[in-house]
Amino acid sequence: MSYQGEDGRLFEGQTISEAYKKYRPTYSGSGIREKIVAFLQEKHQGPYDLAVDLGCGSGQSSHYLASHFKNVIGVDCSEAQIKEAQLANTASNVTFRCGDESGLGSVADSSVDLVSCGQSIHWMDLDALYPEVRRILKPGGCLAAYGYFAEEISSTGDPATITVQLQEIWDQVWAWLRPYLSRKLDVLNDGYVDLALPFAEHKRYSDITISRDVTLDGVIGLIESFSMYNQLIEERPEEIDTLRGFRTKFLDIIRKVSDSPEEYSLTLTSKTVLLMSRKPTTE
């Protein structure tokens, strides 16, 4: 991801990069890719030669797009994130490089069909990003910004009271982390309703959800991948014990319905927003 100021440090360490790759959700099954392609096809029939995935992190979004574009370039300012992306890369048409929204000089003018920003545009300097988006997009090409927020936790097939209790602990986790939430995340948590766009024509989807089944390790790993958790631990390392305490609370609830709480299946569901903006076909 590409960040400004102090927030630029939050995803750059090796530990958080590994957690990000392992525990963050993918976009599979969300329909986001299909909605982007449908929006492109309205005025730009293809073929789709190139997508640039800005703030690619460990590559989830880049790989998600690979089936619909001849080539995908994932760009991120974190060397650790790019290393994780490269290690996990099995797609011959996806490459990764270090960079940010102001340094796309190697990408030719009017050569890109899609600029995607998965879980990243809220961190970016839009005054630096949008001139580059206007420069590199083909006429009819589009910018697509998407992200997930407001996770909810539930049990799988057990009484609703268990889900209520699990959600109460999840809400306590958020209350613990909220003081360390970057103001830049407010833009995402508000569903990108106030996000400025580079072009007049745009389309929004705010009714998308991403669900995935995880164990408790997946829940704790997701928390450890959050920027606010890493900011907290950087300032107060002893707070690791607080996360261990939350893990114990989750286990106590799960033990009410399972003799194997570490393997018990939980569902995490995230609200997701997709916002697209199209470069005019004629200037």
Provide the fold topology.
Blueprint: H1 14-23, H2 32-41, E1 50-54, H3 60-65, E2 71-76, H4 79-88, E3 94-98, E4 112-118, H5 126-136, E5 137-155, H6 160-177, H7 185-189, E6 202-214, H8 216-224, H9 227-235, H10 240-254, E7 266-278
Parallel strand pairs: 1-2, 1-4, 2-3, 4-5
Antiparallel strand pairs: 5-7, 6-7
Number of strands: 7
Q: Number of helical runs?
A: 10
Computed structural class: alpha/beta
Order of helices and strands: HHEHEHEEHEHHEHHHE
Shape: elongated
Widest sheet: strand order? 3-2-1-4-5-7-6
Strand content: 15-25%
Helix content: 25-40%
How far from one another are the termini? 30 Å
Using the CA coordinates, give the radius of gyration.
19 Å
Low-pLDDT segments, ≥5 res: 1-9
Description:
The chain is built from 10 helices and 7 strands. Strands 3-2-1-4-5-7-6 form a 7-stranded mixed beta sheet, sandwiched between helices. The longest helix has 18 residues, at 160-177. The protein is 36% helix and 24% strand. By secondary structure, it is an alpha/beta fold. Helix 6 packs antiparallel against helix 10. The protein is elongated and about 60 Å long. Strand 2, helix 4 (79-88) and strand 3 (94-98) form a beta-alpha-beta unit.
